[in-house]
Amino acid sequence: MLTHRIIPCLDVRDGLVVKGVRFQELREMGSPAEFAWAYEQQGADELVLLDVSATPEGRKTKLDTVRRVRERISIPLTVGGGVGDWTDARALLEAGADKVAVNTAAVAKPELIAEISSRFGVQCTVLAVDAKQTAPGQWQVVVRSGATDTGIDVLDWVRDACRNGAGEILLTSWDRDGTRSGYDLALVSAVARAVGVPVIASGGADTPQQLLDALQAGADAVLAASIFHEGNYTVAELKKFLAAHLVEVRR
What we know:
Layout: E1 5-13, E2 16-21, E3 24-30, H1 32-42, E4 47-51, H2 63-72, E5 77-80, H3 86-95, E6 99-102, H4 104-108, H5 111-120, E7 125-135, E8 138-143, E9 148-153, H6 154-163, E10 168-173, H7 185-194, E11 199-202, H8 208-216, E12 221-224, H9 226-229, H10 235-244
Parallel strand pairs: 1-4, 1-12, 4-5, 5-6, 6-7, 7-10, 10-11, 11-12
Antiparallel strand pairs: 1-2, 2-3, 7-8, 8-9
Helix pairs in contact: 1-2
C-alpha cells in the first residue's frame, strides 16, 4: 500500500525561511538548510522549497540556497519560484532539486509544463496552484504570490496541466494560507477527483486532525509550514497520530 506523505514547506526570501498570511507580512524564521536538516531528522518524507520573492522580483530561484539545502538532506526536494523556461528547471535539478514546481509562468505559457515534462519526466514536473474561492465550490487560479487574479477555473487548469504532463499537483488555498484555520477540504476533494495524479494539500494546517481530514478528503500528501517552524508539532508526532487513525505512513 502506498503511504501518505508529510511535507514541510520552506518559503524562502533572500536566503531565509519566511512565513506570513496569504503570502503577505512575511516574517523571517531562519536558515533553510538548518530547517531542512531538522525536518529530515523528524521523519519528513519530502521537502518543498519555494522562493516566494523570485517571481515578484523578476528573477530566478537562488541556486546557492538549493545547493545548501541539498547538502544537508537526502530526502526528495521540490523547488519552485521564478521558473520561466525549461533551462531554469534544468538549473534547479542540477543544483539538487528532485522535482520542479511551476506556477505563474505556466499560466502565462501553458506549454512550459510539457517542455519540462518531456525533457525531465513527469515525475519531475509539479504544478503549483494557488486557488482563491470565488463562490461555493468554485475557485480561480491566482498568481504572483496571490497578487493577480487570472479568472482561470482551478479544475479546468489542473485537468489541462495533467494532460500536458504535470505529474503532481501542489494545491494551496490562498484563502487559508497561514491562517491555521484548516485545509479547504472542498477544494482538496474537488481537485483530487478531477485528476489522476497525486495531490498535495497546502494552506491552513494547524492540528493533527486537520491533516487527517485532508488525507481523508482525497489528498495524497499534506504540506505544512507554521506548525513545524513554530515548534507546535514534529513530523514524528503527526505520523504517530495518523498511524493511530489507520493512515499508512512511512515510520
